[in-house]
Amino acid sequence: MGTDRPAAQIAVNRERQRTLYGAPLGDRVHRLIGILGITQARLAGALGLSPAMLSQLVSGRRIKIGDPAVLARLMLLDERCPPAGGPPAPAAVTALLDEVRTAQLQWSVPPPRSGRRVPGPHRGGPDGAAAVRSGGAAAAHGPGGGGQLPRRGHRTAAVAPRTAADALRAVAGPAQLVAAAAALDRGFPELAEVLRQAAGRPVPR
């Protein structure tokens, strides 16, 4: 009976990962390293994880990716990864991993109407979230986004979003929304589900 318990717990953990990430992390990682022809340790380096931590996530001994920035990098790599087939050229793989490793995945925060600065999450905060900088909506849709706040006195036309999901998608890309959901999941599961739905990845029921 004692030998069955760890296996049963891992099965439970993998199902929890399926709920959080759409599939067990082992399945996602094995797909990526199979397509790219790289080792799990090299993937861990690109994501900003230690090989031991990634191994625990893949095996199901650990459930969650604790750092939202790591989750955002994993989602970015999953989006940019070519479809299954022949392995891409080594130079292309290296360029893709370097892009993911150095990606600056940030939220764009709209300016407050009162003109007062609103403090945002910062590196080293309660959830270990990456720095969030104010900017245009383009900053939320991948690396290199560098939108600037409107200059004081400069007015821009505003179009009211139709739904809450529209409002969320206007200021953050899918990777950032899912990363935020992972950060909020423990304390605010209902908000986390709203964020995942806005990202186009509703929680399975």
TrEMBL record:
Protein name stated in the entry: Helix-turn-helix transcriptional regulator
Superkingdom, natural source: Bacteria
Region entry Disordered, spans: 107-162
Compositional bias (Low complexity): 128-141
Organism: Pseudonocardia acidicola
Entries under InterPro entries matching the protein: Cro/C1-type_HTH, Lambda_DNA-bd_dom_sf
